[in-house]
Amino acid sequence: MTTEWTVHPNRFELGPDKPGRNGHYRALRGQRARLPEEKCQARVTLPRKLAQFVDEDGTATFAGPDWRFVVGAARSFARQHNSCTTLPDPFGFKDNGRWRWWDGTQTAESILDGAGAGEHVRRYLKQLFPRAPIDISDRR
Length: 140
Hints:
By secondary structure, the protein is an alpha+beta fold. The protein has one domain (40-138). 19% of the residues lie in helices and 19% in strands. The protein has 2 helices and 6 strands. The strands form 2 sheets. Strands 2-1-6 form a 3-stranded antiparallel sheet. The chain has a 3-stranded antiparallel sheet with strand order 3-4-5, with no helix packed on it. Strand 3 (92-95) and strand 4 (98-101) form a beta hairpin. Helix 1 packs parallel to helix 2 (117-128).
């Protein structure tokens, strides 16, 4: 194996910006990729010790395209910044065709797809942030 590198000579030649020369690029045309709309949102009022992570009104906003994203973000935040060492189990997962939830219940269908999903999320967030007021918004 050789230790020498060979670079195509026109890549680093000085000269005008044209194809094959350093600095030449082609702009992409068409529609840019967009982030999904944040239709599910939970605002949690956090204590002053976490003031560096909150909005001007003292709340942290966890938002995303669905409730799975919101509870995942909130749990990750709580695990990283909460002084509490014991967190509730992860919100839920599917095992052998059944959904298993943090509170020990099981269902055939996901509770996050139904009309009462926001209230399930509120109950879970109360476990993550016990003394914090929580505001839920669902625009699905």
